Amino acid sequence: MKMRKQRLMGVGLLAISWLVLLLACTGESPEDQDATAALLVLPLGLYMVYSDDYLLYDGEPVARARDRPEAALLSPPYPQLFPREAGRSVRDCEGDLLRHRQRDRLRYGGGSRHRRREAG
Is the confidence at residue 39, as pLDDT, over 80? Predict the structure, then answer.
């Protein structure tokens, strides 16, 4: 039933695009001959008619992993953002940040800014 609804809407969009093209062919001024709407609606109608995927939104969204309450148990809190809530001082968090930067420099090479020039 859902795919039938989508295909009927696609046929409706195709009919609208053909009406726009018909009106554009009979227009006398350049503004009356504009068929931009057909260029936007025709591909969408074709896609809705021939696609096997359901494109329309009907009702409630599907729950994502981050919306589940048990997902909070999987992701650790970030003490760098909220050091007081985690019982840590700001100085401890700054030390963690410096250690992570040093680790990344060693791991990824640090880029051209961090390379020392060799004495030549």
Answer: yes
Q: Averaged over 39-68, what is the pLDDT?
A: 81
Which residue, chain included where needed, has tokens 């840590």? 88
* pTM of the predicted model as reported, rounded to 2 decimal places: 0.49
Both structure tokens of 89? 């001082």
Q: pLDDT at residue 19 above 80?
A: yes
- Integer CA distances (angstroms), 28 to 23, 32, 38, 78, in order: 10, 6, 18, 65
| Other CB atoms within 10 Å distance of the CB of residue 93 | 17
- DSSP notation for the chain: -HHHHHHHHHHHHHHHHHHHHHHHHH-SSTTTT--HHHHHHHHHHHHHHH-SS--S--SSPPPPGGGSTTHHHHSPP-TTT-TTTTT--HHHHHHHHHHHHHHHHHHH--TTTSPPPPP-
